[in-house]
Amino acid sequence: MEYSEAKAIIEALIFASPSPISPKRIGEIISLDSRTIESIVRDIQDKYKREKSGIQIIFVAGGYEMTTRPELADYVSRLNIEVRQSLSRPALETLAIIAYRQPITKPELESIRGVRVDSVLNTLMERRLVRVSGRKKAPGRPALYSTTSAFLRWFGLASLDELPPLSEDSDSLLGIPGSD
Amino acid sequence: MKDAPSERLQPIRALEELTRGLEKGEVDPSSVSALNALREAMHEIERVIGKPDLDYVGDFLSAASDVIKAKAEKLLPPEEYQNGEIEGEPEPESEEGSLYDAEGEWSNEALLTHLMEYRVFQDAVEELARRDAAWRDVFPRSRPVEIDRLETSVVSTEIELEDLLSALKDILKDAPREEFSHVPQDELFLEKSMDHIRSCIRGKDEVAFGELFQKPVTRSGVIGVFLALLELIRLREIIVRQDRHFGEIMIAFAPGGEADGVQ
To answer: Are A120 and A58 in a shared domain?
Structure first.
């Protein structure tokens, strides 16, 4: 397969994919290794930049996705397509705690926030930013909550590793092993 | 407070009522946002009298500080503990990792750790808020999976418990009856059945209702899987849909659920 053909196919796959498409999945379709695919995607990204294109390819939630450029948001939003609502402060607080402490139970969340989280948790579940990922082996087997890939896409994160590090001394507070 | 019309007093009376509820333990302090209560009272004051006079502001501040004090007293450790000990009594030792000491009260160390832990997340919240705002301006070419699936469910006929029960009856017809000598008391039974359903769906887009019952051939097994199905629906882990009346009932992971959960 010629380089230009592979480039065209990868561009088409990213364009047509209904959700972020991983290098591995692209590789399964066109029989190329992930490294080559990443290099070709960088080429396409450079081309869009050079041409000052209105679209870009980003790596989010473990895969490539085509999006509009943020500086064009004023124009794109005039299309009357649904613009998402910002999250409230309590929702962001709850999400942050789940993201760093997942999997976490509701009582643990409430203990950190100092207030009930039922309503906020419901909203986050409805928006598919949080899911029940299991049950804790404790009396009552409380549900454990984790973030989803929709969470990564919402905040433009490639993976949870991209979450900003918490402030100093936080590791020991959060019980992260080997941090003392 | 002098000669104030009753409508003017309502926001302050509401705050006083809240304070009384907190003090008597009738209102759970964790369920009350003092900030929201004060905000609502302020809005009400603005609505009723516009710009409040100085006397009125004084009364409002007094009622507001009572609410905050009542909430703080219920949530924070008793004053004696804040100084490290109760007069005449040694401070009880607290269990490691517990917010409470041997007397069931907050320990100083635990409270400090708790407050610091809360503070640690504030930077993360700021970063998420920044990203939340920034990524609102980016419109993806690919539609979020949840929108696609929600739209699919709009064209599906609505499934009610009755439909599921009817499908269950069909499965039960073929399941052999068991001779019960005892009632099984396996507390993990539901959990196992939930795992069974998850493993049936895993790796596929969706499975037919009947496929979930191929393994449990006994009636109790069928009932167990059915109860697990209801539990997974309740937890919003799965969605159930039917494309047409009397069509096959299909089960899939809910959007944002396990199917999308690879991170």
So the answer is: no
Q: Does residue A179 lie within any of the structural domains?
A: no
List CB contacts (< 8 A) between B256 and chain A. Answer: 128-131, 148-150
B121 touches chain A (CB under 8 A): yes
Q: Which of B239, B242, B214, B216 is nearest to B229 (CA)?
A: B239
* CATH number assigned to the domain comprising residue A55: 1.10.10.10
Contact: A148, B116; criterion CB under 8 Å: no
Question: Taking CB atoms and an 8 Å limit, are B138 and A87 in contact across chains?
Answer: no
Range of the domain at A152: 89-173
Contact indicator for A112, B121 with CB cutoff of 8 Å: yes
Q: What angle do CA A167, A168, A170 make, to 5 degrees?
A: 75
Can you tell me the distance from the alpha carbon of B101 to that of B95, in angstroms, rounded to the nearest whole number? 6
Q: What is the pLDDT of residues B127-176, one digit of tens each?
A: 889 888 888 888 887 655 444 444 333 334 456 777 778 778 777 777 76
User: Which chain B residue lies closest to A87 (C-alpha atoms)?
Assistant: B132
Q: Do A62 and B263 make contact, defined as CB atoms within 8 angstroms?
A: yes
Q: Cβ neighbours of residue A83 under 8 Å, at least 6 residues apart?
A: A77, B136
What is the bridge-based pairing of β-strands A104-105 and A143-147? antiparallel
Note whether ipTM > 0.90 here: no
Instruction: Tell me whether A166 touches chain B (CB under 8 Å).
Output: yes
